[in-house]
Amino acid sequence: MNAVPADDPPVSPEAARVPDPVLPEPSPPMRPGSASAGWSRGVAALAVIGAVGSVTLWWQLDQIREQLARQTADSGSQAVEARAASKQAEELARETAAKLAVTDAKLAEVALQRSQLEELMQSLSRSRDENLVVDIESALRLAQQQSQLTGSVQPLMAALKSAEQRLAKVAQPRLAPLQRAVGRDIERIKASAVIDTPGLLMKLDELVRAVDALPLLNAVGVTPAKPPAPSAEAPSSWARAISMTWWERVLGDIWDDALSLIRVSRIDRPEASLLTPEQSYFVRENMKLRLLNARLGLMARQFEAVHADLAQAVADLSKYFDTQGRAGQSTLALAREVLAQSRQTELPRIDDTLAALTTAAAGR
């Protein structure tokens, strides 16, 4: 409501002509009852709005509560299922742990058995190899002694070949150096020149037998000639013998006896021709004893004594025996051959094989 001042200034005529401004109509004054009614309506509207919001909120809360209840129930069931699954997993883990422990125990037992079997196989293989090495070494040493006693390399060669065959059958890599050493010794023995002792012994025996039948230079008489072969002139000679008189036959016999009593020959060594029958016997026996002594020396590997005895035997054979005939020449040639072959030779050694055997026996 607008208040008008009491004292206004005087209005001029020009100002009186200016129309007055249009003023808004004043609103009707509010009544006290209408204001309270508006407030009541506002409060009621607010109450309605609050009630509606409360109902809506309550409905939403109820929905949330139901959803939470469902989720809680679901979570509970899931928790129960999870506990059951965890219990099953725990039981399964226990069973798996128990099975794993049993498996580990069995695996440890199998590993122990395997190691024991490997050790047993290694010990068996090692013992077999050691027995093979010991057998080969004993056989080779025995063959070496036999070769030294007999002067022949045949026992040693046979033992080496047998050892090579046994090593080839075993085919053990650890024994390969031993097999190579045996092969080298075999080649060395084959390439070496060794005296043939058995052959020389046989030749000495033949010389002893030849000396018994060989005539000495002081032997008297002519070796009886072989009877002439029958020919076509035999009937005429018989006829001529029948036609001879008795005194002609007597004179012929006397002439033949005289020819047998007289012998004309050249004497280059008179000491051999002037031997008595007793001395001739001892010369022959001494020759045989010298040859037998050479035979014993050859078996004992005393080559110097063998060479001396054979040289003296060859000299006596040329001095006292008849070497002009076929038998004497063959006997003298045989004696000189034995003398040339009775040179001293060293038996080949098997040092490589013995060293390889020592290494194999030591297990290196």
Your description of this structure?
It is a single chain. Helices cover 75% and strands 0% of the residues. The longest helix is centred in the first third of the chain and has 119 residues, at 32-150. It starts with 12 loop residues before the first helix and ends with a helix. The chain is rod-shaped and about 220 Å long. Helix 2 (32-150) runs antiparallel to helix 3. The chain contains twelve helices and no strands. Among the domains are: 127-193 and 350-362; 196-220 and 268-344. The chain has 364 residues and is an all-alpha fold.
Given helix and strand content, the structural type is mainly alpha
Count of helix runs: 12
What is the chain-wise order of helices and strands?
HHHHHHHHHHHH
Unreliable parts: 1-16, 220-239
Q: Tell me the β content.
A: under 5%
Number of strands: 0
What is the terminal separation in angstroms? Answer: 135 Å
Q: Radius of gyration in whole Å, from Cα?
A: 73 Å
- Quick one: biggest sheet? none
Helix content: over 70%
**If you average the pLDDT, what whole number results?**
75
Overall body shape = rod-shaped
